[in-house]
Every structure is written in C-alpha cells, then in structure tokens.
Amino acid sequence: MSFLVALAESDSVPTGSTVTDSANWFLEYAWLVPLLPALSFVGILFFGKRMRYKGAELGIAAVALSFLLAVCAGFAWLAHHDDGGYVAVQKSTQWLQSGSVEFGAGILVDGLSVMMLLVVTIVSLLVHVYSTDYVGDDKRYTHFFAFLSLFTAAMLFFVLSDNILQMLVGWELVGVCSFVLIGHWWEEKPNSDAALKAFLTNRVGDVGLIIGTIALFFAAGGGRTFDTVKINEAIVGGDVSQAALVVASVCLMAAVMSKSGQFILHTWLPDAMAGPTPVSALIHAATMVVAGVFMIARLYPVFFEGMQIGGSSINLMATIGAITLVFGGLLAFVQDDIKKVLAYSTVSQLGYMVMALGVGAWTAAVFHLFTHAFFKANLFLGSGSVAHAVHSFDMKKDMGGMRKFMPKTYVTFIIGSLALAGLFPLAGFWSKDEILVGTGGWGLFGDTGGNGAYTFHLLMGMFGAALTAAYMTRCVYLTFHGEYRGGHDHAHDEHGHEAHGDPHESGPRILVPLYILSGLAIVAGFANLPGGFQLVPDSWTERFGHYVEPVGSSYFPKIAHATPSWSLAVVASVVALGGAVVAAYYYFVKVDRLSKETEASLTGLPDGLSKSNRLAGAGHRVLVNKYYLDHFYERVIVAFTKGPLARAAYWVNQNVIDRTVDKAGETAVLAGRHVYDIVDQSVIDGFVDGSGRVSDATGEELRHINSGKVQNYAAILFAMAAVLAGAFLIIFAL
Amino acid sequence: MLLNQFLLLSAVLFCIGVYGVLARKNGVLVLMSIELILNAVNINLVAFAALNTDALNTDVSGDVFALFTIAVAAAEVGIGLAIVLLIYRNRRSIDLSEIDLMKG
Amino acid sequence: MSLLAALAALSAALSPDGDLYVAQNVFFAVIAVTMIFSALRVVTTSNVVHAALWLVVVLAGAAAQFILLGSEFVAVTQVLVYIGAVVVLFLFGVMLTRASLGDDESVGEEKRGMAAVVGVLLFSVMAIALIDSFEADRLVIDEPRSVSTVSDAIFSQYIVAFEAVSVLLLAALIGAIVVARKD
Lengths: 734, 104, 183
Prior knowledge:
- The structure holds 3 protein chains of 3 kinds.
- By secondary structure, chain B is an all-alpha fold.
- Chain B has 3 helices and no strands.
- Chain B has a domain at about 25-95.
- Chain B is about 75% helix and about 0% strand.
- In chain B, helix 1 (about 5-25) packs antiparallel against helix 2 (about 25-50) and helix 2 runs antiparallel to helix 3 (about 60-90).
- The termini of chain B are far apart.
- Classes of the chains: A mainly alpha, B mainly alpha, C mainly alpha.
- The interface of A and B includes residues 704, 710 and 718 of A.
C-alpha cells in the first residue's frame, strides 16, 4: 500500500498550469490499466500451464478489465474540464534520487493518452480472443499469451508515462516483447532472423532515443528534468536553444524512424511478418509502430520546433513522412505475401501520420492513428483468417476465390480495405481527408489555412491515396476473387499441419473480433467530422479533436488549424476511387479474363510483372499469342460482318481505354518493382554491404599487427596512451 | 608534505606495474603487476582526498572510492586467477607468450 | 621554465632548513624507497613466491602511506583485504599452477626493452604533467578522517555505487566458480 500512499501524497505540480493532480478516480488510477496486463504476464508465466485454458483466460480477463477501466477513464475524461478547457492529470512520485537529480515515476493522463489506452486495450483484447483460436494448438501457447500480455502492458505503460525516462523504459519493453513474439516460431531460421532484424534495427533508433533523452534532460530550460510537461512547457516558452532542439529532435527522429518504420529504417517491418498474425495485428495496429508516432505527438514541441529546416516553411518530418508514404505504397504493389502487402501499407499509413505531424496537423495525425488502428487490425486479422484456412500467406500460389469459401471474412476484409483506401464514408476517408486538408496545400481553390502551404506534401498524399486504393484492390482480387489456386501439394504450414481439403470459414473466436473491428472501421471516422459544413449540428463535429487535442495547454505549441474544404474532399475521393477503378479494371477484368482463358495459374503470370522476367515472359508470350491468335480470327470475322462503326468502337475500346488502363496498372507495378529493386535492394543494401566491405579491407590491412600476443597489444595500448597524454600536455600545459 | 610526492610515488609504482604487465610471461605475475597498478591509483585517490578535505573532514569521496577500488581489485584477482587456472588446466602452462589465439 | 623553477623550489624546501624537512617526510621517504625497491623486485625476480612476498612489502608500504595521509580506515582495509586475502589467493594460484617449484626463468628477454621503453615514456609524461599542475601544493592534515565520516558517505551519498559493488562481488564470486570448476 505504500506505493498508493506515496502516489497520493506526491508533490503537486505548480498551480496555474494546465496540469492538475486531482481528478476523477478513473483518471487518477489510470496506472491500473497497464498494471493489470503486467500482473497477468507474471501470473501466466508462473501458473499458466496449470490453468484450465493454459493461461489464456487470465490474459483475456486482465485485458478485458483494463479495457473497462480505459472506457471508464474515457468517460471521466469527457467530463473532466473546467472553464478553460480540458486539464491534463499528472500523478507522479519520486522513483529514486541521485545527487540533486530526481527521477520521477508517474502518469500523465490527457486526451491523447486516454485515446491510446482505449485503442490499445480494445485491439489487444480482440487479438487475445482471436489468438485462442489462431494459435490454439501451438506448443508454446502459454508463453505466447504471457508475452501478448506483457506487450500490451508495455505499450500502455509507454503511453501513460509522464517523463521521457519512463517512456524509454516502455519503448525498450515494447521492443523486447516484439522480438520475442516475432520470433515465436524460432525453430525456423527465417523467423529467428526476422526477430533479430527487428530488434537490431530498433536498436539503431534506440541509440538516438537515448541521446535525445539526455539532450532534452540538459536542454530543457536548464531545469534538468525528464518531465514531459516541463520539457514541453520550456520549449513552448522559448527557453530552449534552437541548436539543442535540433540535436534532440534529430536523435529522437532516428528512434521514431526505426520504430515507426519510416523510410530507410522500415526494412524490419515486412520481415516482422514472420511472427504469428495476431502479433502482426497488434504490432501494426495498436502497439509498437505507433509508439514512434505517439512519441512525436507527446513531445510535439520538440519535433515541431526542432525539425523545422532553418526558418523555411519546409519541415523535415513532413518530408520524411511524404517520401515514406509513397515508397511504402509502391512497395506494396509487388508483394505476393498478403501480410507483406499489409505491412508495406502500414509503412505508407505511418508515413501519412508523420507527414501530418510535420505539417502541423496534429489532430489529423492522431485521428488517423486512431482510425488506422481499427481497419489495419481488421485487415491483419482477416488475412490471418484466410491464411488459417489455406495454411499459407502466398496470395498468388495458395489463395484466390476465397470469397466462396469464407464469405464472412470476405465482407469484413472488404470493409477494412475500403476504409484503408479512404472511401466515403468509412473511417479512413475522414482521417485521410483531414491530413490532406492539414497540409494547407489546397490553396488553389481558396486558402485552407494551417501552418503554411505544403503543396508538394499534398500531392504526395493524393498520390499515396490512389496507390493505397489500387494495391488494396489487387490484394482483394488475388485473395478473394478468381479461381482457388491452393489445396495442391504443399507440405507443411507454419503450424505443422497437413493441408486438407477445401478451405472453410473460420470459427466464431476469429469472426467476432473481425465483426467488431470492421464495425469500428465503419463508424470510427464519425468521431471527428469536419466542421463548418452545416450538414450536422456543429456540436457533433470535431469531437475527437475537441477531446484529444490539448489546445491552449501550456505544454502544446500554438498551431493554426486548416479549414476543411468541400472541393478537396471530392477531389481526394475521386483520386482514390480512380486508383481503385484502374486497379479493379486491370485485375478484375483483364487479369481475370486472361487467367480464365489461358487457364494459367496466377503464379508469376499476369501481374504485369512477367514482362520484367524474361523466362516467365517467354512462357507467358506463347500463351498470350495463342490467345491473340484466336481472337485475331474472331476479330477479323467480326470486323467484316459488323462494319466499320463497330470496328472503330472496338478499336477505341481495345487500344485507347484498354491500353490506358493497362499502362497505368503496369506502370504502377513497374514503379513498385523498381523502387524495390533499386532503392531497397541496391541502394540501401549496397550501402550496408559497402560499409561491410570497407571494414573488411581495413581489417585485412590491420591484421598484420595482430600478433595475437596480448602483451604486445597492451604495450601498444600503453604507449599510445602515453603519446596521447604527451600530446595533450604539449597542447594545453606547456 | 607536498601533494606531489605522493603523486610521483604513485606514478613510479604505476609504471613499474606497467612494466611488469608487459614484460612478465607468467600469468600470476602479470596479475600481481596489475595489483601494483591498482595500488598506485589508490594512493592517488587518497592523496587527493587529503588535499580536498575541509576543516570538518566531511568530504571523503577519495577514501570511499579507494575502498571501492579495493573491492573491485579483490573481485578482479578472483576472476583473474580462475582464468589462469583454466588456462593452466587446458594447456599445462601459464606462459602468456604461448597464448596467441587472437592472432590475425 | 616553470618546470625547472618547481624543481628548484622543491629541492630548496627539502633541504635541512626548508619547511618540508619534517618527520612525516622522513617517514615518507623511507617508505617510498622501500616500496619502489620492492615493486622492482616484484617485476624482476624469477621466483614467483618471492614476487608474492615482495608484493606484501609494497602493499604494506601503501597502507603506511594511507596512514600518513590521514586515511586510517583505508589503511586497515588495505591490510585486511590485500595482505590478508589477495596475497593468500596469489599464493594459492602459484601453488595450483605449480609454477612455484622451480624458478620462473621465463622473464621474456625480448620484451624487457619494449616494456622498459613504454614504462619510462609513461612515467616521464606523467611526471611532467604532475609537476607542472600541482607545483608545490601542500597537504595539511590536522587529524585523520574518521571511520564514521567514511561510512556516512558510503551509506548516503554513494549508496548506489555501494550496491553496485556488492552485486559486482557476487557476480565475480559466481563467475570465478563457473570458470574454474572442473566439468
């Protein structure tokens, strides 16, 4: 009980700020939310094997209770405002003291953390339920649930932290849990490799996080504090030098880029698909990858001021996000693994969030995080449901036509895809539109305000929207339409089962989470309807921003808000729809017809890629020629019988419309392939290889002084120390 | 007394220790030379503690860290001798010049 | 040259009518010469057991210097831990590796030169730096620093370091057992 007493008696923060330490019970005791899953981790680890359901029931109960607490905290937050607006709740206690430096431990509850609590607990709860079926007969079932609980606890701990040191702890905990869960089936080498890659790539960013934390500690107004509120206040108050901010924000950005899969450090994300699907859903929707975005949102003054390039209107963060969102979208085009499509899609969507944060559209970014969590979890769990049925993740080899076998999964997957593609009125439409508005680049048809006009970023966002719609169409086609291509002689799936018979619909423990998530994917967008259109009462609009954004707080920078625009919403929808239609025509009509008439398997054939692969292309061309030959005869006969008008119409159809669509699809696919080949495989890999070679060559030269005799090393060490000391002596003393 | 007389004594002991570490072949003797080095450091620490002290003798950081050094040195000898023993058991010799597995 | 001036001042203070010609300094000089001689024997003698015994002399000399510096507790600990435990440990090590039975003839001839050069180089750099920085700073030791002050410091200001050292000792204990056990 001493902890409770200490918490109750902790120093109150200075009055007059936008932070208080007394509030509704649910807000003050929000630390129970991460504590419950943490306890369940310990419980499952020690007693799980002896329980009736091997520990799953404990994990589900703990997370469900956490979810209830989070819901109560959410309602408490809605009521927790005074005349000046919403007031964040901070409860902290002293953790330890070293000299004059105090290390605090505490919680900071505001709209952002309450929102994250809700999202994390609900997604985690559904993932827990889903996992009872999905990994039902896994040999490390109990272990899996234990770490699922710890993963949830770590993320909840992270979002509630009131100081950056505590955030660092949560951040590392999340990383460790992801390592364990990605490598859940570590007996197979690629899985353990993927886990290591995820862990090590994250370590790269963690170094940045540690340096950034230290920089902030010393920089923040000379206060020597880890407290996020105080740091943010100092920066908003202008007490921190720009140089220190740049150092801190660049270091922290490295951490964000590794954790949130921003371009260059995104490579671990697709590999992380080696983990069980529920873990992928948890990583991509609620925990792990959004940790980086959350950190930007939490320490927004640091990033917003620090990443601004030399007083110009270009923000580095926005540019990183814009590049990521387009590259991720292109890469999603050439993946055959359904989970990898979704992984690159996550990269792309995280790019949207980072871009939005960069252009000052804080609410839009956080709102997109909110909606994205639901539809991405929906899509991942849906893909897992399909994969569970066909025992494979390969869309081209083992899927196709799943619509007939799994109609319920199909419907939920379609809803998720539409939401992701941003089609009206699903969740993705509202959040993506808000980001596009937030770029302020729609100045063409009237100024939308905001923090400057980011036209380039707006265009990238538009392009990304079209790409998103297109690759999701491809994904849906390859998975659910056409003929079923699976069921042939593949050996063992990841569970070690033999494939058997036709795939069948998943059970209720998989479907119910899917229903709930797709329901949320439909309605989540209504949480933040744009204001000023007079279609709904103004008190219904911008609710999300109203509750979550700490406007007017002393720890939040003053940012201008862009005005929603009819024209932009329409144009963005048309662009997304256009992407979907082009892709739909290409896959549903062209490719579908081709595969039916040639009776070819889709493997490596009509994805427009065969042209870049000579061998497959040769085989392909034979088939296509036969196809064209038959049709040539028909066409000649038809042409002669039906006359020039029909022929002209036919010509237009075949050559103009068809080819345009054809080319658009092929170009997108080729662009994706090139990005993958050149940038991902050549440039980045080449850079890594090159640095390896350089050190190799250096080592080759230096090995001659390696006699292997430890005393020779010691002699060189001491002699060099003496020489160095002598040099200092000469420079500084004599 | 001068501060420097202690510091120079410490420097002499340190360098003798370095000489021993570099010149001796016997693993146990190398460990003894390392003890010389650590003692030299301790004399330094205590000398500075004596310099730094105020009228009430309240700042004893140097003494405290000398004590920590002694504790760490004890741990170091324990591990060092265990390693020497292991090498001896595997190679029937503790001649450091024969151990060149790290040869490049 | 400040260096020469410092040396001149030092020799003047050490002459029979200088202010440094006090009993403490006489003791210091005697002990220091003994220590240096013993330390040289430690690193040059060919008998390992003799080396360990010469080491005892150096360690005891260091303890005496600590008393001169007014640090009684460190001196006592030095005697207890070093002479009482570490040297005994060394003798066990010598015994178990059987190197004590014969003379250790293996003082590397080819390495002596290299080691001596490095040692002299290090010493000259350090000596120049020390004389240059602390020229003639005096130590004034009125009374020894009491054990209670030291213990207060350890258990308040340096409690974290103290805990870390205790964990380190435990780790070393376990590590030594793991490394040395036969299996």
